[in-house]
Write a structure and sequence with these properties.
4-stranded mixed beta sheet; alpha+beta
């Protein structure tokens, strides 16, 4: 057993209240001729597909930036002005603060950067996921998800006005998915396929519940505490976390995204990396995560890593300085801290060689 297997064994947990029975680790370090593709547990390989969760957000952000390049939208345009009238009807009063409706003041940039001031409908304290678990077979449209946002009163709990702070919210990327559909007159799944999946030759990536899965694609499913989500319809994740993918596909995607391969203009990929710290105590943390346009930046050791993490305990990060990709997936919503630990330990090991 080498160091990589040892690290996986540290996060592997076959049973209990928070099982992580099928973790995956992927490292590509061409400068050292190092490739690591490992898994732990039964019936899983590094090639298995899995629910990426919020690693979907850079895909959605890339679509929006492509539309900006094409002149279809501007990042400082107001969302309200770009949507179809029937979509706006569903958004009336979505952001209500201090007796004022701020919905029409939300820009595309606010959504990309999580600076809209909207609540996160998927946050555990709001109870939305409990509704999902109570109706595990239900497919959620964006309209139904937003209707639940209003039913929970989240529209009246906005923490700040648009642009006045940072608050991570899947709601932002639900709205960006809606925007992509309204502007292109094509489904979000078709946009992923036409603009990212097909051009990059991604063979194990698709929008679950909205797009047919590739034939014979092996899957591993996440846990939410003791409960497997295999039989739970998580279509509410959509533009903020609905993609299925594999480590080889994600490796291909993150390098293409950061290098600018998905864009026509060299400056677009750099624009996504306009990172700013979150407001609040986390901004001063040694492990603070900065956020740009659908991308996170973490400084681990010396180099900066760019990518995104997921509430399912998955990480995808790339260091342009080192030309190094690290991907991992624990498939356990209660193991995000373990995923963070594994990411840092992997970097420490690579730096020590």
């Amino acid at each position: 057993m080498d160091i990589w297997d040892e690290l996986l064994q540290r996060v592997y947990k076959p049973a209990g209240e928070t099982p992580a029975p099928q973790p995956i680790l992927w490292i590509d370090d061409p400068s050292r001729g190092l490739q690591v593709a490992r898994s732990a547990g039964a019936d899983v390989t590094p090639a298995h597909a899995f629910r990426t969760g919020s690693i979907t957000k850079p895909f959605t952000a890339a679509l929006v930036l492509q539309l900006a390049e094409e002149g279809i939208l501007g990042l400082d345009d107001f969302l309200w002005d770009l949507l179809k009238p029937e979509s706006r009807d569903c958004l009336q009063g979505l952001h209500y603060l201090e007796h004022r409706d701020w919905t029409a003041s939300i820009t595309i940039r606010h959504l990309l950067e999580h600076r809209s001031g909207l609540c996160d409908y998927a946050a555990p304290e709001h109870g939305f996921f409990q509704l999902v678990m109570a109706q595990p077979d239900r497919t959620w449209s964006w309209q139904q998800t937003l209707a639940q946002y209003f039913a929970l009163g989240l529209n009246c709990k906005s923490p700040f006005a648009p642009g006045a702070g940072f608050h991570y919210a899947d709601t932002n990327y639900l709205l960006l998915g809606l925007l992509v559909e309204d502007l292109t007159r094509q489904t979000l799944a078709d946009n992923y396929e036409k603009r990212i999946i097909a051009p990059l030759g991604l063979t194990g990536t698709f929008l679950e519940f909205f797009q047919a899965a590739p034939l014979n694609l092996p899957m591993v499913y996440p846990y939410y505490g003791p409960n497997s989500l295999r039989a739970v319809n998580t279509s509410f994740d959509w533009g903020g976390g609905g993609l299925i993918s594999t480590m080889p596909d994600l490796h291909r995607f993150i390098r293409a995204l950061i290098s600018g391969e998905l864009f026509k203009q060299e400056t677009t990929a750099h624009q996504m990396r306009n990172f700013r710290a979150a407001a609040g105590p986390e901004a001063s943390s040694k492990r603070a995560t900065l956020y740009g346009l659908g991308l996170q930046e973490k400084t681990i050791g010396g180099p900066a890593f760019i990518g995104h993490s997921s509430a399912y305990g998955a990480m995808l990060f790339y260091s342009p300085q080192r030309n190094l990709t690290i991907g991992l997936a624990l498939h356990q919503a209660a193991a995000v801290h373990k995923a963070e630990w594994l990411l840092h330990k992997a970097v420490e090991q690579l730096e020590s060689v």
